[in-house]
Amino acid sequence: MLSCLQRASASLVVLTLFFASIPAHAQPVEVVTTPAEQPADRVYLSNGGMVQGSILEVLPNDSLTIVSAATGDRKSFAWSELAAYEQGGQRVEIGAVSAPAPREEPAPVYGPRLHIETTKPASVHLYEITGEMVAHGANVTVHGIQYRPVCAAPCDKVIDTSGGSSYFFGGEGLTTSNRFNLTDARGDVTAVVKPGRRGLRTGGIITMSVGLALMALGGGLFVLSKSRADRDEILGEGPAEPPKYGAPIGLLVGGAAALAGGIVMLVLGKTRYKLKTGGLGLLRPLRFG
């Protein structure tokens, strides 16, 4: 009986050693990771207050919206009310909102209000002389001006005369007037403009040139006829026929008429003006040109 127990004990020992020698396979253990809790968003106000919750909307230079963790209410703050805010652990400082630059007010216009009337239909403009140029060469002097348009008839606007510039009237197809200055003018000024046509002035120059040429030719023929008659008389031969002064005199008269007509056309072709001050029919002459 004892020997049987000893054999059984030996068998158990052998089995125990056998199973102990077999390597054990460990079962994989699933590790559950818990995500780190995100910090709550915070809004810091410029008055020292703070709101904690979840930021919904950020509009730079406009507003910020957050859902309060304490009350669950949605709150919006103007950008000027914010000092800083934290979102997702990132802090954003908010500087002072720069105020828009003040709009520059135009300098007050100093000068009279000008009204332009024309004696006949024409596109009359007022021009301001902004610069002048004089160039000298060999027996030649060139004079030029720079100008800019100010207004067109009837104008009815205040003219800035603070720069002391000179002005003149003109327009498309028109001749220019004489210069004038409005520095001393005040209140309402009316300019009555008589437009001069450029074509009429050009025609006057041509007519004057033709008249001068005819007069020169007539004078030359008259002198030639007279000198021939005097020579024949001095030589005692006597003129074969009386001198003919008809053609020279005709040329002289025609040339003089053409010259006079050209001068009239030249004068009528120039743009002229009359400036008057006052209003409501109480106008008094100021200047002519």
TrEMBL record:
Residues annotated as signal peptide: 1-26
KW Transmembrane helix (keyword) present: yes
Segments passing through the bilayer: 204-224, 245-268
Keywords: Membrane, Signal, Transmembrane, Transmembrane helix
Name under which the protein is recorded: Uncharacterized protein
Source organism (scientific name): Nannocystis pusilla
